[in-house]
Structure formats: structure tokens, C-alpha cells
Amino acid sequence: MLSVVIDNNQFQKEIDNILKYSTGFIEGVHKGKSALYMALAPKIAEMASQFIDVNARMSPELLHHIYEWQKVGSPEARLFDIDYKITGIGITFTSSLKQSQSIKNGSNVPFYDKARIMEEGVAVTIRPKKANALRFEIEGQEVYTSREVTVDNPGGQTKGQFENVLNNFFGVYFRQSFLNSSGLLQYFKSPQVYSKNLRSAKRGGRSLGLKTGYEWVANAGRMG
Fold this sequence. Notes:
- The protein has 224 residues and is α+β, with helices and mostly antiparallel strands.
- The chain has helices spanning 8-58, 60-63, 114-120, 161-181, 184-189, 192-196, 201-218; strands at residues 80-87, 90-97, 124-126, 134-138, 141-145, 149-151.
- It is built from seven helices and six strands, in the order H-H-E-E-H-E-E-E-E-H-H-H-H.
- Strands 1-2 form a two-stranded antiparallel sheet. A two-stranded antiparallel sheet has the order 3-6. It has a two-stranded antiparallel ribbon with strand order 4-5.
- The longest helix is centred in the N-terminal third of the chain and has 51 residues, at 8-58.
């Protein structure tokens, strides 16, 4: 007759450790999020900036206002910043516009608040300061006037275009292209590391689960 003896104490200990491993894994996943966000945030911010640069070079009439004069699409001439803030629930990205330092041909001073004014479509009134008349060009013709001049839409087609291209990046490109091409979606769909360490979980318990979960999430920041 076959006789099998099961050590209930050892069996119960291993089951408890596996359960603790699972709990620790989940805790490690949550702890690893901060490391993941810290690694991904600057990459995404720069990727968004590069996305804007490419669009600006393709459509300068829409995005020339967020670069220094004659340098549309150049990373060194950006008049915008994309900043990020990391919290317990994710990453928040914010944008801001900067002052232009360059001077347009025919002018003596930089266009104050150029990027914001053109983005918002704010009308600009120009008055002569030192001279008795204003001089400017309209369709290649020089025009002189002693009166103030109001330009209703100084940026042409630029109104709202910076906001539009940012929305396209985060709302379309980031979700549909980056997450797939970077491998992040596939990576998180198959947590093979969990089952790979399950045998060791009988001894490692919560501490092993915590380490495994943390490293699984944190290591995803190296992708993209």
C-alpha cells in the first residue's frame, strides 16, 4: 500500500509565503510607479517638443510664433517650455510661452509677448514713439503714417495652433503611437516576471514580491 505523508506545517508556510508574495508584488508595483514616472516624464516632455518642431517645419504659417524670428522649428529657438509634475496618481504636463529675444528685420526691439499675443490672437496697436510717423510694409510696399495702427491678427493663422498641436500629441500620437511603438503596452500586458519568481515565493514571501513588483514597473522606464 502506498503511503504519503504531508507536512501540513511546511505546506501551510509555503502557501502563506505565496500569498504574501502576491501582496508584496502589488505593493511593489505601486512603489515602482514613482520611479517609472521620473524616468518617463522628461522623455515625454522632450518628445512633445520635438513633435511640435516637426509640425512647425511642415506648417510654419501656423507655428512660427512660438519660435524666434527666422528659426521656425529649431529646438534652440523655442519660445515654449513643457514642464511636468509627478504625483501619486501620475504625471501632469503643463506648457508656458517665453519672451522673444530676437528682433525682426525692420524693427528696433523684440516683439514683446510675441508668442502669447499671436497664440491668443490679441489685437496689437502700434504708435510712433520717437519718430513722427510709422514705417512698415504691406505686400512689399513701404507705408508711412503718423497715425496709430491696429493689427487685428498679428500672427495670421497662428491663433490657438500651439494648443492644437499639443492636444494632437497627447490626445492622439502619444496614445496611439508612442505607447505601442515603445513597447510599454505589451510590457505591462504580460507580467511574466511575476510567475517567473513564483517558485521562489515559497521562501521569499512578501519581501521578494515587493522587490519583484517594484523592479518590474521601475524597469519599464528604460523603454521608450
